[in-house]
């Protein structure tokens, strides 16, 4: 195991990539960076050690306690690691999500003025109303207050209302 650890450390130094301990998932993969990296290094090392892919998959299961990925996936990880120097996937295309970035601003705004309307708060912070609604309902677990106009009852209304009377006939059966 020490040999593998040294190989992984030297690989990280030579590749110039810095992996943080908080980077558990590289992307949408169900395997962590550590799992992907070690499987790639073990696969690359198997040529020198005379081990088979089944041995690598068995070691993966023994080390991480979950089923190993298919052989093709591990070979793809190895190819990517030694070709690009990184095990991470390319960034996803599309519009990036900024909801997590603005969550602190919304929370501070709600704490500062909790009675402000959603529309006014979104225009002041420059955040779309739908994003603001998502922040408040999902991230901050708030329920929105929708004011409604309630008419007062006058004396005439009291006379006009109908009182429902319910009578119960209780008959004792013997």
UniProtKB/TrEMBL annotation:
Protein name in UniProt: DUF4817 domain-containing protein
Entries under PANTHER family matching the protein: HISTONE-LYSINE N-METHYLTRANSFERASE SETMAR, MARINER MOS1 TRANSPOSASE-LIKE PROTEIN
Disordered: annotated segments: 88-124
A GO MF term: double-stranded DNA binding
InterPro entries found in the cross-reference section: Transposase-MT_Hybrid
Keywords of the record: Signal
One GO-annotated biological process of the protein: DNA double-strand break processing
Signal peptide range in chain numbering: 1-21
Biased composition (Basic and acidic residues): 88-104
GO terms under cellular component: condensed chromosome; nucleus; site of double-strand break
Domain of life, source organism: Eukaryota
């Amino acid at each position: 195991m020490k040999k593998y650890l040294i190989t992984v450390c030297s690989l990280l130094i030579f590749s110039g990539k810095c992996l943080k301990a908080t980077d558990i998932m590289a992307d949408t993969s169900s395997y962590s960076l550590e799992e992907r990296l070690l499987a790639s290094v073990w696969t690359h090392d198997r040529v020198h050690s005379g081990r088979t892919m089944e041995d690598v998959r068995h070691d993966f299961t023994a080390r991480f306690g979950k089923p190993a990925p298919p052989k093709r996936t591990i070979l793809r990880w190895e190819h990517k690691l030694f070709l690009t120097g990184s095990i991470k996937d390319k960034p996803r295309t599309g519009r990036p999500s900024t909801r997590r970035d603005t969550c602190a601003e919304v929370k501070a705004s709600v704490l500062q003025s909790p009675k402000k309307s959603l529309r006014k708060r979104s225009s002041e912070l420059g955040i779309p109303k739908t994003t603001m609604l998502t922040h408040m309902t999902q991230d901050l677990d708030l329920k929105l207050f929708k004011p409604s106009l309630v008419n007062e009852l006058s004396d005439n209304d009291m006379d006009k209302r109908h009182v429902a009377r319910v009578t119960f006939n209780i008959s004792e059966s013997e």
